[in-house]
Amino acid sequence: MPAASEPPVKIRLREVTKGFAGRIVLDGLDFEVREGESVVVLGGSGTGKSVLLKHMIGLLRPDGGTVEVDGRDLATLAGPELTAFRRRFGMAFQEGALFDSMSVWDNVAFPLLRAGWPKAKRAERVAECLEMVHLEGAGRKMPAELSGGMRRRVGFARAIALEPRILLFDEPNTGLDPVIKAVIDELILELQDKLQSTAVTITHDLTSAFRIADRIALLFRGRIVAYAPPEEFRALPDARVQQFIRGLASGPLTE
Amino acid sequence: MTALPAPLEAFLTEVGRFFVMLARTLAWTPRRPWDARELVRQMVRVGVDSLPVVLLTALFTGMVFALQTFSTLRRFGAEGFVGSLVALSMVRELSPVISSLLIAGRCGSAMGAEIGTMRVTEQIDALEALATDPVHFLVVPRVWATVLTLPLLIVVGDVIGIAGGYLISVVYFGANPVTYVENTFRYMDLDDLTSGLIKAAVFGLIVAVVGCQKGYHTRGGAEGVGRATTRAVVLASIAILIADFFLTKILF
């Protein structure tokens, strides 16, 4: 395929290294996400998928290498500039990360409030977002009263409230029942469709990975070892990819 | 570069983090949106909610101080000075320091626990991801609420402490009420009061910045939150006592 027909790169990581207390998590990782694409990152537990995602929004800074979003090196941004830059992102966290001093409603309204939306418009949008994740009646509840799956859905609603151009989802559908899982997948596709948003999703769930991804990546030992459209990915001869897809206990991933 | 001894390094880290947090707080203060409601909410927590504790402490401090000084000064026939002594000590020293230590235990710890919990449950990350600076949103209102409220608390503490001294001297020891009140205000001028209030404002700054800083840098789950909370109180208390020495030296 000629390079000219490809959409521009939205997020680019170059030779990113990151370690915590002497343990290397990302080891010279190179990765590109193109505008408008939905990318799924697969990888075993504890391989640094969340760490990778947090680098994309500047919540973590690389020890070495660069992270570029929309052509801007995140290392050049700090303070108010970085804060303002993050308006283009929406991120859903693994455990929801809801503000536990606020009700579900106020959580979803938070980004709208910060963006200065008027009250009526805010209320309308919050209701809409809660409806999207099938939590219409839960607005008054406090996060502590919710189940893990519900918290995750509220976190998802909060992340998409402002219809951001870049969506980062850290295991948005882990622990949800199959129906709600499908709903979340649909929402990710719909957002992409409607806004041409770029989405990076971390998941263990192969069904939803193949459902939502334009490209699938496999993270292993701090690097992206495979990166291809779903059908190609499925057919990759790489033993690590095949082990992950088939869910085998023994293979190069577990060595 | 030679490595510093571990305790010295830990100490310098704390000092550095304190000033970095202070600088970030000041840098974010003038930026919009200003959250007046949150500021008031925090002022209520520091001020109104702490009032009973501060009142009780100030009352008994004044009473004990009068009890001690009256029986001592009577030996020299100088019990006429008890009123001045109690008033000056309360206003300049006892009320600001003791109340601030209480606020460190009550509010500094709460700030450490609250922000620490937000850190370990990724709520701080979520704030950042939602284009909101955590220092702007969490630390700025807490610091200013404490800086503004603590002096007010201390004025109330001054009054109650002096009243406690009066109670003991006049009611218990039978001093002449008119001369006692006269003596209370004879040697006191406005500088004594303002220096106490300046102290209170500085201590308020220390309590809030240390509490928020310890919370902000929390690591390691529930245990980490516990550690951050304890450290917030201990560090703030030590810092208050050290700052008190230097402030006293500068202000008088």
Outline the structure in words:
- The complex is a heterodimer of chains A (255) and B (252).
- Chain A is an alpha/beta fold and 255 residues long.
- Chain A has one domain (7-254): Rossmann fold, CATH 3.40.50.
- Helix content of chain A is 36%, strand content 25%.
- Chain A is built from nine helices and ten strands.
- In chain A, the strands form two sheets. Chain A has a six-stranded mixed beta sheet, with helices on both faces. In chain A, strands 2-1-4-5 form a four-stranded antiparallel beta sheet, covered by helices on one side.
- In chain A, helix 3 (104-114) runs parallel beside helix 5 (148-160).
- The model of chain A has no long low-confidence stretch (mean pLDDT 90).
- Chain B has nine helices and no strands.
- Chain B starts with 5 loop residues before the first helix and ends with a helix.
- Chain B has helices at residues 6-28, 36-46, 51-75, 82-120, 123-129, 134-172, 177-186, 190-216, 221-251.
- The mean pLDDT of chain B is 93.
- Chain B is elongated.
- By secondary structure, chain B is an all-alpha fold.
- Chain B has one domain (35-251).
- Helix content of chain B is 84%, strand content 0%.
